[in-house]
Automatic annotation (TrEMBL):
GO cellular component: plasma membrane
PANTHER family: DUF218 DOMAIN-CONTAINING PROTEIN, INNER MEMBRANE PROTEIN, PROBABLE PERMEASE
Pfam family, one: DUF218
Occurrences of domain DUF218 (ranges): 27-145
The name this protein goes by in its record: YdcF family protein
InterPro entries: Cell_Envelope_Assoc, DUF218, Rossmann-like_a/b/a_fold
Organism, as annotated: Paraflavitalea soli
Amino acid sequence: MITNEVIALAQELWDYHHMQHEPQKADCIFALGSHDLRVANRAAELYLQGWAPLLIFSGGLGNLTKSIWTETEADQFAAIAIEMGVPADAILVENESTNTGENILFTQELLQERGLDPQSFIVVQKPYMERRSYATFKKHWPDKQLLVTSPQISFKDYPTDDIPLERVIHVMVGDLQRIKIYPAKGFQIYQEIPDNIWKAYERLVELGFDKHLAR
């Protein structure tokens, strides 16, 4: 049940997951695929504002999208960007990856094949996955300059019919757990989690928001 307590605790997690980075000029915009098509809009918007000359969309069909779509995340994202006015020749598509680590590794391979070596990236992801994306990218590509951004939407306004509030909270809880446990597995760099954030996480788990936890 979504009570006022749950909303307050979830807002704390939402705020922590945001990196609060401001866009800066970069060599490329790197959008990570997902079920949230607003990520594509944000990436295209950044390109059209002139923040970078190259736009990469990465994502096949992941755990969630394979049950709802037949067209890959990256291909859908690219179609949205082209519709918004991004030239097709400014876009690269990597449509085989199924998780954040693969997004990065498969994109590294694609760039090598094309003879491209961008040094600075604007990574675009869902709002509550900014921090985890940053930590994963820095693990796999430590020598690159990186900032992370997401659709500019508040926690209150983020849920939709397709992305209900309850699911968002389950995923935020699971992502916080991964920020804690994944550095030891070699998947991400270490990120400090303040005590109040971890307490909010523990309380949400206690209240039953545990469907996205790594077992």
